[in-house]
Every structure is written in C-alpha cells, then in structure tokens.
C-alpha cells in the first residue's frame, strides 16, 4: 500500500493569473482517511486532480514540485498507470458517466474491463458495489435516466468496484439523502480500515469531523493546516477561511464546553453528549475560562 | 397570492414503474421545503409543476386554471425552475447573455431583461463576472448562474432543485437570503434539498416524499419531530435536533442559536 507525498506542489491553470495551488507539502500514510475542507475556489478539486495527474497532464498550465504515490511520480506517469492505483469520484457525477454505455451495470463494469480480472471476480465486485450503494435494482437502466442522487451513487460504485489503493472523492455525497450519505461515509471508512487510503472533499463538517483521521484546511490555494478534526475545528479563525465548525462544536464553543482531556472542543454528537449536562439547580452558565 | 393545487396526480416514465402514485397537495405562500430519499420523485414532481412532464392521471391547477391547457411557454411566465444539474440549463458562452436569455424568452424587452439580470447576478454575488464564460466556472458558480437565470425572469413561483449543491457555508447563507427576499416579495418558493439544517433555518413548511407519495406535510418543526417516519424516508432531523433527541430532552430545537440560548438560561455543566 502506498504512501502519498506532496513536495512544494504549485500549479496555475493556463489562462489564470494566480496560482490555484501554492507550495503544498504533506505526507499521507496508507489507510488514512483524510478530509479536505475549504471555501469555494480554495483549490480542493484542483488538489484532487493533481493527485491523479489530470493536473497537469490534461489541463496543462504551469506546474512545480511533485506528487508521489508510492514510488510513482504523478506528473511523469501516464494516466492509465495512475488509474490502476488511484480512483477519483468527480464533483459532478455527470462528468463521470462515460456516455458510451447503455446500462448502469456496464457503466460500473467499464473501469474493471482492462484490469485483467477473472470474470467471476468482476461480477462479484460489480454486484457488491451496486448493492453497497443501493442501486442494484437499477442495473439495467440507462445511466442518464437515473435521478441525481442515483447517478452520484453510480459514480461512487464504479470506483469502489475497482478497489484502487487510493480513492479520492470530491464532494461525493452532495446529492445523497441523509441516510445515503451516512452509508457512504461508513462504507468508505471500512475501505480505509482495509488499508485503502481515502481522501474526501466535503462541506458536511459533522461527517468530516466524525470520520476523518486528519483534515486538510485549504484557502486560496494554500494548505493552512493539516491536523486532527478536534484541532482543526477548535481554531477560532475558521471564519476567515470561509468554513464553519460542525453544529456540535459551534454549540460547545458558545457554551464554553471543552473536552478537558484534550483541551479541544468536541466535534461529534457522541463526544458532545458525554460532556454536556444540566446542573442540578439552575445556575449561571458555565464560565468560559 | 399564487396557489398551486395538485389533485390525484400519477406519473411514470415507463409502463413497468410508477413514479408518482396519487399526489394531492396545495402549495401556497408558505416557504416550502421538499425532502425525501434519492429517487423518491421530487425532481419529477417539480418538472410536472413546470409542465416539462405531463401527468398520466390527475391535474394541476395554477390559480384555479388547469395547466394541461397551458403551453410550456405560458407556464414559464409564472414558474421558474432551477435545475438540479446546472449543465442542463447553461448553454451560452457569456454569463450576462446566459442570464438574459430567460427573461427575453418570456417576453421582457432587452433593457428590462438586462436590469433584472444584473440585479439577479448581484443577488448571487457574481456581478464582477458578467463577461466570463460559464464553462470556465466551477460547479458552485455554475449553480449560482443557474439560480440568477431563474431569478432574472421575475416569476411568481420560484422552484429550486437542490440549490446548495457544491456551496460552502457562505454560499448557503447567500441562498437563504435570496429565499427570504423572494418570500418578502410575495413570491411562492419551493425548494428540494437534502440539507436538513438548511430546511430548519429557512422553511416554514416541509413536505416529505417517500416512494412516490407524500409521507408527511406540515410545519417544519412538527415534521422534524416525527423520528420514525423520517427514518423510514431515509432522512434524519437537523444536527441540533439529533443532539436533543440523544440527550433525551423533551424540548426539541431545530437551530443551534435557539438551543444555545435555552441551555444558557437553564445552566449547564461541562462534565
Ligand atoms: N428519464 C427517466 N426514465 C426512467 N426513469 C427515470 C427517469 N428519470 C428519473 N427516473 C426515475 O424516477 C424516479 C424518481 O426520480 P427523481 O429524479 O424524481 O428523483 P428525486 O427524488 O429527485 O431523487 P434525487 O434526490 O436523487 O434527486 C427514480 O427512481 C429515477 O430513477
Ligand atoms: N478549468 C479551470 N480553468 C481555470 N481555472 C480554474 C479551473 N478550475 C478551477 N479553476 C480555478 O482554480 C481555483 C481553485 O478551484 P477549485 O480547485 O475548483 O476549488 P474548490 O474545489 O476548492 O472549489 C479557483 O480560483 C478556480 O476558479
Ligand atoms: Mg471543487
Ligand atoms: Mg432530484
């Protein structure tokens, strides 16, 4: 399983004046679940694309530094070699549909076709992913006749079926119903426990806080922080970066409730529940400091 | 005040699979959220309201008039719909042209269309981008362009299909403000969304679709108190409400601010 290393990664889109990625360096260990947060246009999607070589091989533009997945240097590798190791779910599921397959089943099979898998293994993987995303009943449907959320489920299923070493998901649950997005986070967490590295961009902070091992905070193409969710969401300058903490953390910040063991504010429902309690008698709110 | 009455409406795309199975509902001036599982039929429902699809059975009355007798072009003068996927809507190479297309198409003159379009772009915060190409913009901005295009038509009814897709929290605040403005202008606002915190913050009425039927319909806080039905419809209450439920509070809140001021007034402990 491969480690991901970015060293002084810089990138500028061809017609743009400013850098979309500005001197980004980090290391991600195999099997980590990494959340990426940041406001619109912070560079989240660009960073995802730089990890699969779409940037700079497809978009061109000015590129500096490097990204390594294991010993493969992304900018110098060809897309088909990269695809064997890294899968990406695009922000807009529409962009993921090949357009040349007539059914959902064939669409999910597409990515597996050149992997040299035995037929039975292929079938198992396709069925498993379709069922995992709860779209097995639509397997014979034309991909363009799916609802938005069903199409997003198909895009995720296609990548999970390939079982790459690294899975990058760019806002994969934006069109999913609440239980569906919970299921996707759980499924993806299970993959990370099996050693697959997960990198997920999301605006759903409650989920990022609950499921990520570490969170990257991006702003104007720069990596502002790369820390545990507790540390990231306890920052008091989140607003400057156009992000907000999970509802639970916002509640605890307003009430001055911290986890005394860690010194950080709670970030999940469970943690908040364990720390919040009514006093016997009504009295002044807990003093912040 | 605009009213839309839907009576015993059925719809299916193919013979094998009924999608909407007898919808009865009256939509009025209350700002309304439509929520429900993926594939429940929400998008189909609003496409029917806009006349892009036609019911197999039942009817839709717009201010008492059966829309079966209206053309799509006539309906477009009254009902604006922001599509779930902005790429289904955007086709011009210049943002101002894109936004002006709708108003001109429903009969506004050039000058009026331009005024409305510039207003609409200001509302979504894209005034600086009039001359840019929508195809060079990211998904979040394309979604805002699609919203502006519909706002510019100044219709009595505005329907948003998942407007918060790809928006950061400032984008969501922007959309909340737009919805409140439309409501204050006396327009009917209908919004499909999967973001329950957004529903709690912004909508008086909430309708829950499940498997082609309406499972719940009522005041938003009432709907969010029905834990079992919500879960049956693959939904969940807003985050604060989940916290209240799990703390076993009998008083249930929908918004962070309300919960915080209540708790402050009661006194709390940091365990
Ligand atoms: N063109 C089509 N042909 C056949 N079936 C379709 C077509 N479009 C949608 N459907 C099916 O109709 C059902 C309702 O779709 P609809 O788009 O209304 O769902 P939705 O509630 O908006 O879902 P989502 O939350 O995922 O957007 C789904 O099961 C979908 O697969
Ligand atoms: N194809 C493109 N061509 C030119 N500029 C782009 C392109 N895609 C994104 N950008 C720009 O790069 C910056 C980062 O965008 P993006 O990575 O999409 O941000 P995020 O995913 O965080 O919203 C933004 O300023 C955006 O306008
Ligand atoms: Mg993005
Ligand atoms: Mg829909």
Care to give the gist of this entry?
The complex is a heterodimer of chains A (289) and B (271). With 289 residues, chain A is α/β, with parallel strands linked by helices.
User: What is the rounded distance between the termini of chain A?
Assistant: 45 Å
Neighbour order of strands in the largest sheet of chain A? 6-7-8-3-9-10
The total of helices of chain B stands at 11
Quantity of strands of chain B, as a count: 11
**DSSP helix fraction of chain A:** 25-40%
CATH domain fold name of the largest domain in chain A: Rossmann fold
**Which oligomerization state do the chains in this entry correspond to?**
heterodimer
Q: Could you report the average pLDDT of chain B, rounded to the nearest whole number?
A: 95
Lateral strand order in the biggest sheet of chain B: 6-7-8-3-9-10
Count of spatially separate domains of chain A:
2
Description:
The complex is a heterodimer of chains A (289) and B (271). Chain A has 289 residues and is of the alpha/beta class. Chain A folds into 2 domains: 4-245, P-loop containing nucleotide triphosphate hydrolases (Rossmann fold); 246-289, no CATH class. Chain A has helices spanning 44-52, 54-57, 79-85, 104-110, 119-132, 148-162, 178-193, 205-211, 229-234, 247-255, 269-275, and strands at 4-12, 21-28, 33-37, 62-69, 72-73, 86-89, 166-170, 197-201, 214-219, 222-227, 276-278. In chain A, the strands form 2 sheets. In chain A, strands 6-7-8-3-9-10 form a 6-stranded mixed β-sheet, sandwiched between helices. In chain A, strand 1 and strand 2 form a beta hairpin. In chain A, helix 4 (104-110) packs parallel to helix 6 and helix 5 packs antiparallel against helix 6. By secondary structure, chain B is α/β, with parallel strands linked by helices. In chain B, a hairpin with a 2-residue loop joins strand 4 (57-62) and strand 5 (65-66). Chain B is globular and about 65 Å long. Strand 11 of chain A pairs antiparallel with strand 11 (268-270) of chain B, so a sheet runs across the interface. Bound molecules: adenosine-5'-triphosphate, adenosine-5'-diphosphate and magnesium ion (2 copies). Adenosine-5'-triphosphate (ATP) sits between chains B (13-14, 19, 36, 38-44, 84) and A (145-150, 175).
